[in-house]
Design goal:
Blueprint lengths: L1 H4 L4 H8 L1 H19 L7 H14 L5 H13 L12 H31 L8 H6 L2 H8 L17 H17 L3 H11 L6 H15 L1
Length: about 210
């Protein structure tokens, strides 16, 4: 997962090699997984390409390594409900994607806590990649609105939707308090119209208002 976090986001990759080529690369990975994973109905080339396009949209802030790792975790049974015997959009987008993003968000928080413990500083500022990672908690919340996330594996998954929102807000507030005013303002300016980043944007705005009092 560390390697996945250090990779190039799919959005940046698409800007370099064209979105269609990025989608084709993801479709190829999906087809390879289907060869070893699918049981029953055949996973067609058209289905693979459509999944590649959809994953490119949902995972635009993640990396190609994230796609590989998510498929690997699904194959090994680390995500999913243990009943995923076929590869389709319902399984991928309602089970695997929320589960993987939740694991990644937790790993980011663990790394952040380790960093604070090792350096014992109070003036931590986000780097550019941290700004991108700031979106993850919102993505997880959005994808889990139907209650089809990772279910019973971790304590957070027993929370209600309202409790999850409170939990995510507290996590984001902690990050916001440790970031510079300039970085917060840049994040707000760049993401104020992004529907998946509204929780993070509201937290950043509240922190900015507090500092301007």
């Amino acid at each position: 997962m560390q390697a996945a976090m250090e990779g190039v986001s799919l959005a940046k990759l698409s800007a370099t090699i064209e979105p269609s080529n990025t989608a084709i690369a993801i479709a190829y990975l999906a087809s390879r997984l289907a060869e070893n994973f699918n049981v029953g109905k055949k996973f067609s080339t058209d289905q693979a390409l459509m999944m590649g396009i959809d994953l490119l949209e949902v995972f635009k802030h993640e990396t190609l390594e994230d796609v590989v790792l998510m498929f690997k975790y699904a194959r090994q049974g680390k995500i999913g409900d243990g009943k995923d015997f076929k590869l389709d959009s319902q399984t991928v987008f309602h089970k695997w994607v929320p589960a993987y993003l939740e694991l990644k968000a937790q790993e980011l928080e663990n790394q952040h806590n380790r960093f604070k413990g090792e350096n014992n500083i109070n003036n931590f500022n986000w780097a550019a990649e941290d700004v991108a990672n700031f979106k993850i908690s919102d993505s997880v919340q959005t994808l889990n609105t139907k209650g089809t996330g990772i279910g019973s594996r971790k304590r957070e998954e027993f929370l209600t939707s309202e409790e999850k929102t409170v939990h995510n807000r507290k996590r984001l507030e902690s990050y916001a308090k440790q970031s510079s005013t300039e970085l917060l303002q840049t994040y707000v300016d760049e993401n104020k119209d992004n529907p998946h980043s509204q929780l993070a944007v509201s937290v950043a705005i509240e922190e900015l208002k507090t500092r301007n009092k």
